[in-house]
């Protein structure tokens, strides 16, 4: 019996010694971590949504008469107009030639008649002042002059149908091919022009944000084709009504697309900024640990990791504002924190 007790005591002492040795080794191990110094910065809270971008201006020009088609040249490049060319209001895109049509308009004849009617009106006005004609004769001369003027205006409008000109500034997005000199029928599509320096998109927003999102709020817009560029937009209109089927309400976003980075029809990701703070402590959201006593992070002080309980404020998908628990210039652990415990020794690798 005594022998068994002695053996048990020896084993206990041995195990305790091993544990103490292991704890000593563990205490001396430096856990590799990455850190960054805390700086004051800004943070934005936003609501995410998506939609399709459309141009503010869009027009398709069609032939208004049956005539021979002739594409014009771009005066800036000296070559025929092409897809992607920019046009300004009044740019001549194509001509439609039909001499019989032009002759039927009789513009020159109508202009000569207008000159005669104008001369007759002046003559009647002079005679009326001298009592040489009646008021009725004067008014008749005036009516004849106005009719002649209207006829000339209508003739010019008819002639304008032979010229396909840009009614807006924009970019050619569709230019159906027609052989030079071939006859095109009335209603044939000649060119489509879009002005997308300013664009818009309609979005459907969750009901819970109806008191948060307001007209005038800034919107950051991105597309996967331009991952490094952010386009700025504004909330312009919001519907006060909730769609009973989708539990959403409609919003309209105006987009400043001066650099033409967005293209009509692109699928756009929109972040509507609902709140913003400047000069506050902001940390990555993914380094926050949830403990029973609250949210915690690790800072490094003289080679030792110290656990801090924090209180957070604004947050978005990637970042969180810290309103209590951290101070400017402290060194916070950004990777390797998963295996840390309070007062662990660490080795900073970044």
Rg is 39 Å
Write out the strand line-up for the largest beta sheet, numbering strands in chain order: 1-19-16-17-20
Structural class: alpha+beta
Distance between the termini: 60 Å
Please bin the fraction of helical residues.
10-25%
Tally of helical runs = 4
| Order of helix and strand elements from N to C terminus | HEEEEEEHHHEEEEEEEEEEEEEE
Strand content: 35-45%
Shape: elongated
Major sheet description: 5 strands, mixed, barrel
- Low-confidence segments, ≥5 residues, pLDDT <50? 1-18, 20-27
- Please count the beta strands (DSSP E, at least 2 residues each): 20
The count of domains is 3
Describe the structure in brief.
The protein is 24% helix and 43% strand. With 350 residues, the protein is α+β, with helices and mostly antiparallel strands. α3 packs antiparallel against α4.
What would your notes on this structure say?
The chain is of the alpha+beta class and 350 residues long. It is built from four helices and 20 strands. The strands form two sheets. The protein has a five-stranded mixed beta barrel with strand order 1-19-16-17-20. A four-stranded antiparallel sheet has the order 7-6-4-9. The radius of gyration is 39 Å and the shape is elongated. The two termini are 60 Å apart. The model is unreliable at 1-18 and 20-27 (pLDDT under 50).
């Amino acid at each position: 019996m005594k022998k068994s007790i002695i053996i048990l005591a020896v084993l206990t002492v041995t195990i305790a010694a091993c544990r103490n040795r292991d704890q000593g080794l563990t205490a001396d191990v430096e856990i590799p971590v990455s850190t960054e110094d805390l700086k004051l910065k800004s943070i934005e809270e936003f609501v995410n949504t998506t939609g399709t971008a459309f141009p503010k201006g869009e027009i398709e020009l069609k032939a208004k008469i049956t005539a021979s088609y002739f594409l014009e040249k771009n005066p800036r490049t000296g070559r025929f107009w092409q897809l992607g060319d920019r046009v300004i209001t009044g740019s001549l895109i194509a001509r439609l030639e039909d001499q019989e049509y032009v002759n039927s308009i009789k513009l020159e004849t109508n202009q000569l008649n207008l000159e005669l009617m104008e001369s007759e009106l002046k003559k009647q006005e002079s005679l009326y002042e001298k009592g040489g004609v009646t008021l009725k004769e004067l008014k008749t001369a005036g009516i004849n002059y106005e009719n002649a003027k209207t006829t000339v205006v209508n003739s010019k409008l008819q002639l304008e149908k032979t010229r396909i000109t840009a009614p807006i500034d924009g970019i050619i997005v569709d230019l159906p091919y027609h052989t030079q000199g071939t006859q095109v029928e009335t209603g044939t599509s000649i060119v489509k022009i879009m002005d997308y320096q300013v664009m818009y998109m309609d979005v459907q927003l969750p009901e819970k944000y109806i008191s948060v999102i307001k007209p005038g709020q800034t919107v950051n817009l991105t597309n996967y084709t331009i991952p490094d560029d952010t386009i700025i937009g504004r909330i312009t209109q919001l519907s006060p009504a909730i769609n009973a089927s989708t539990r959403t309400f409609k919003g309209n976003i105006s987009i400043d697309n001066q650099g033409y980075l967005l293209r009509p029809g692109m699928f756009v990701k929109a972040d509507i900024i609902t709140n913003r703070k400047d000069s506050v402590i902001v940390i990555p959201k993914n380094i926050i640990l949830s403990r029973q006593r609250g949210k915690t992070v690790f800072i490094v002080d003289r080679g030792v990791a110290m656990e801090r309980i924090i209180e957070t404020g604004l947050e978005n998908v990637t970042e969180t504002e810290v309103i209590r628990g951290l101070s400017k210039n402290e060194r916070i652990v950004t990777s390797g924190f998963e295996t840390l415990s309070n007062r662990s020794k660490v080795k900073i690798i970044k």
